[in-house]
Design brief:
By secondary structure, this protein is an alpha+beta fold. The protein has helices at about 30-40, 60-65, 75-85, 100-105, 120-125, 180-190, 210, 225-235; strands spanning about 25-30, 40-45, 85-95, 115-120, 130-135, 135-140, 165, 175-180, 200-205, 215, 240-245.
Length: about 250
């Protein structure tokens, strides 16, 4: 028995930025940047492996909708678990300015880099089918629910659990690329007791020279670290702009 999930491919009202030229950032370690340079790919992580255990889950109200739907309880458990284990995402930060919080959270106290691009360039870099991009919506998982879907067989859009997060993460201003692997979900529904191989990471190829506008270096990094980032980047993309974080410097009194 294979569930018909085709309805999930329609009615995707994921919010989009008002201005597609808004700046988008990805803060990371130098080693992760090198892995992107080497592979010419963007990597997506499986959602059930995220630190936040609410990733890919439903608010309390929507859980009740599923329980009261035509699905059997055991089917719902298998389905939602498989959905989390078979959906991959890449997380970015939209902000026309740098974020001190993002430097601290994703790069630590003194080392790290940030890829800077625009929403339009990130969106245009996606060439594979069945991938989506949009703004994360932040809601209260205790007393709010996902948007209603008219005429849908499912109580919620199947991608809504991955395009919503708790309000505690609102500071992240997240843009998310999402790739649901429907074939893995089909397999788990057809054989719920079978061991299905799900890679922890997936990727898609991009033309990095078209995507990346600048590489920013951590505001508290030492000079030698900046030179390493510059030399490393130049080996792959000699024309790519490398610059210090705009937060570098001392205030004038």
């Amino acid at each position: 028995m294979s569930a018909d999930l085709s309805v999930s491919k329609v009615n995707h009202p994921f919010p989009q930025p008002e201005n597609p030229t808004d700046l988008v950032w990805r803060y990371m370690s130098l080693s992760k940047l090198i892995s992107i340079f080497e592979a010419h790919k963007i990597f997506l992580c499986r959602t059930d492996l995220f630190e936040d255990k609410y990733e890919g889950t439903l608010p309390r109200i929507d859980k009740e909708l599923w329980k009261n739907s035509d699905f059997k309880p055991q089917y719902i458990f298998i389905f939602l678990k498989s959905l989390r284990e078979s959906t991959y995402v890449s997380c970015w930060h939209i902000n026309n300015n740098e974020s001190e919080a993002m430097w601290k959270v994703y790069c630590g106290s003194g080392e790290g880099v940030a890829i800077q691009t625009t929403y339009q360039k990130l969106r245009d870099s996606i060439t594979e089918k069945n991938m989506h991009i949009g703004l994360i919506s932040y809601i209260n998982y205790e007393n709010e629910k996902f948007p209603n879907l008219q005429g849908s067989y499912y109580p919620v859009n199947l991608m809504h659990p991955f395009m919503h997060k708790r309000k505690a993460f609102e500071h992240e201003k997240e843009i998310r690329i999402i790739k649901p692997c429907w074939e893995l979900i089909y397999d788990s529904l057809d054989a719920p007791n079978a061991k299905i191989e799900r890679p922890p990471v997936m990727s898609f190829e991009v033309k990095l020279e078209n995507l990346i506008e600048s590489i920013f270096v951590h505001p508290l990094a030492p000079d030698w670290y900046f030179e390493i980032v510059k030399a490393t980047t130049n080996r792959y993309f000699p024309n790519l702009r490398i610059q210090w974080s705009g937060m570098v410097g001392n205030p004038e009194y």
